[in-house]
Records
---
Amino acid sequence: MSDLFDTIVSLCKQRGFIFQSSEIYGGQAATYDYGPLGVELKRNVKDLWWQEMVYGHGDVVGLDAAIMMHPKTWEASGHTEAFNDPLIDDKASNHRYRADELIEDHIRDLRQDGDMEQATAVHERLVAALNSDDMAGDLYDIIQDEEIRAPRSGAFDWTPVRQFNLMFETHVGPVAETGDRIFLRPETAQGIFVNFQNVREPARQHVPFGIAQIGKAFRNEIVARQFVFRMREFEQMEMQYFVKPGEQLDFFAEWREKRMAWHKRLGVREEKLRFHEHEQLSHYADAAEDIQYEYPIGWKEVEGIHSRTDYDLKRHQEYSGKNMTYFDPFEQEKYIPYVIETSVGLDRTVLMLLCDAYDEDEANGNERTVLRFHPEVAPIRAAIFPLSKKKGLPDIAHQIEDDLRPHFNVMYDERGSMGKRYRRMDEAGTPFCITVDFDTLDDQQVTVRDRDSMEQDRVAIDQLTAYINDHSTGWSRDAV
Ligand code: ATP
């Protein structure tokens, strides 16, 4: 892992953003807990997604479906049969890799070395292997033929490629052996599909319309060593938009743009975001692109946008025997809608924001670490400091705290030197630090220090809410 990535992981632990789950027992692999700062950051992201997707669109409504769904759901969706990762073990280090990712890295190396012809040939073999009935065998053959070595040990001593189903299983009922076997959902999308009719009618929606949901998903990821990038328990924010067959590619193009705009709206640097077309489409999809962010561990998917045809609704109709057609009262026609899906990982978004915000610079000759979050995602919007504990300054600062609390998450701090208080807030990514000083007693004004420029403005106490709002919406990473 890169040094920067390690630094961010350790800052997350020290400052209470994110840490290993069940740490006192040695930790539970690939699961993480969000501390006080992390949970605020995550909530802000969820709220901004909901505001954009649901409140921002009259034709998108919300849903909160259960994590435990009827096991037939996963037969219909194809997860029971085909939700597999092809894995291969390096016998020298016992390290496990995803076979397709090893080959993708190899292709990238070939391209970097200028061997375009070979890169294209291997790429074609990879695409064919991923679509073949003997995916494991074909991937293994590529690794052998290309003599791909294990990144960690450098050895060329592989086990065969094996497929692992990623769904977590559990049992419903008092006795494990006799209870029904169910799965923890590996994605939130199916809760939307099975409820298509339950939601559409009462919400009085007509096609085109969408259903949005935020919730936990579970995958038994075998290669899970990338902090919150790949977890076994994570959160997704998904929206399925139901359209008339034939119109899907226009809506795909529209949602693709809207979703990219949302990431930029979070303040993420534009040059760190890009679209990535899928190398091979799922058999039911007729378009698919990822939004990738350049994490310190490389360009990686943060969101997928997929045109899934009528595959899911048709399959649920088939497996449940329930009607999934839609009758269009305006055109007087009946059909099973096509679906555009936007699916973004909440934890990967949080990680993207942390990586994008991380910066080091100098403050008064000292090095400082600063998280340059967009003010609207920052866990703490403003901190309030009394310069001194004398002359009633803490009382005024507490009064400001009370006045701001209904509008923003704010924090009061009177401990330590001003320099130390600023440093703590810089590391938490707090965009505004408000200081009550002795002049405040006369002029009813306070000093507001900007996290990024470290410049200070004198602002009247009764103008603080407006000041923070103006400087939050107008914020741009480019101006830093
Ligand atoms: P990957 O190829 O990286 O495993 P995926 O293509 O399987 O991802 P999707 O099934 O499209 O991912 O899920 C949609 C989104 O859910 C992803 O873009 C990602 O942000 C998030 N996600 C998927 N798996 C995980 C995970 N194990 N941990 C955290 N987030 C995840």
---
Amino acid sequence: EACLSAIDAADALNAFVHKTPEIALDRARAADERLQGREEAPAMCGIPIGIKDLFCTEGVPSQAASRILDGFRPEYESTVSRQLKDAGAVMLGKLNMDEFAMGSSNETSVYGDAVNPWRREGDATRLTPGGSSGGSASAVAADLCLGATGTDTGGSIRQPAAFTGITGIKPTYGRCSRWGIVAFASSLDQAGPMTRDVRDAAIMLQAMCGHDMKDSTSADLAVPDFEAALTGDIKGRKIGLPREYRMEGMPAEIEKLWADGAEMLRDAGAEVVDISLPHTKYALPAYYVIAPAEASSNLARYDGVRYGRRAKLAQGDGVVEMYEKTRAEGFGHEVQRRVMVGTYVLSAGFYDAYYNRARKVRTLIKRDFEQVFADGVDAILTPATPSAAFGLGEMSESDPVQMYLNDVFTVTVNLAGLPGISVPAGLDTQGLPLGLQLIGRPWEEAALLNGAYALE
Ligand code: GLN
């Protein structure tokens, strides 16, 4: 009830786009009963959370913040949200996001911008909570819920976490089932928790992951006890600082944040070494070929027949007009841009020059990481973002590349399928939160969370 009132009082943040108070109170009552029962209840039992609008939730609007999914109420529940529900978590509602998770500022949502609860000192400018999981970040940062689900295709958990001073982990590709999550770029998409701190992230991730027969890319691996791994002991662990992430024009405060983080890990007994990930500079262009390519294919299903909205048709319109009109008015600008770029790079004449080349670059990026891990590095420390949260409307819509540059430190992790976590690491000179990212070996989320715990 406290969360529900907090949500109502925080409408200005536009974090929750669909509230589900009846479901919340029902589940809370059930959790109370379970907690009073004899068996030991899971740690998530009774914990109020929000669910990103990208997750299908049974009987509850699930629109991926797109007009084209107007009126869509799935008859099924995504595996991740079902697991959370089974663990006793209490869903408070659906959270704002960029349309189809395409964006870094939550400005492409059909519901309008989500707003960051933070402000620059002495300045009332409304700031972005980041994206695409902007509503999730804003809700957790403003204490509207104790945790939220996010998804991360190129940074959409880690960048908003950094912009709002919370913790967010993208697990190894395959750790969480993608079943029932609206697909953006299937070879990159992963779900993960967004929480106030590392311990909460460990607890919530535990409930979210595991093998699922319904997702052929989900890994059939045992899920370790993530919370038990949080000892804070990182003595002798080898942490790499990749020199290619020291970008030209990097703000001094980001450099300092990074150096301070390295110092903290060294003080805790880790060995900090310089490393090289030589193909880093090709990651962003490769991502912005591969992600739109997969998106253009995934979004072909929105045809005005199978889901959601169909445009009004004129006398004599046929099936082609129905597709065209539905997709023209159902998809926002950024989504249309991605569909066009994706279709172009997959077209017969350009496939080898763009899509295939990007896939080769992706392999090289993955090998860079494999090499570093083979050399004994346990985790890699980088800044999470190149800046603190920016003002809503500050980035020009006509220059999408400016927005894409936000993902420069995060997309490599998705391309290589690795786990990555963003933890709050201090404030910038204007009093805004900044985050550090730790990247781990595949399937070693437990060690990664423990490293983040030492940084906290
Ligand atoms: N900002 C990136 C994009 O727009 C990443 C989004 C995401 O991780 N879902 O594609």
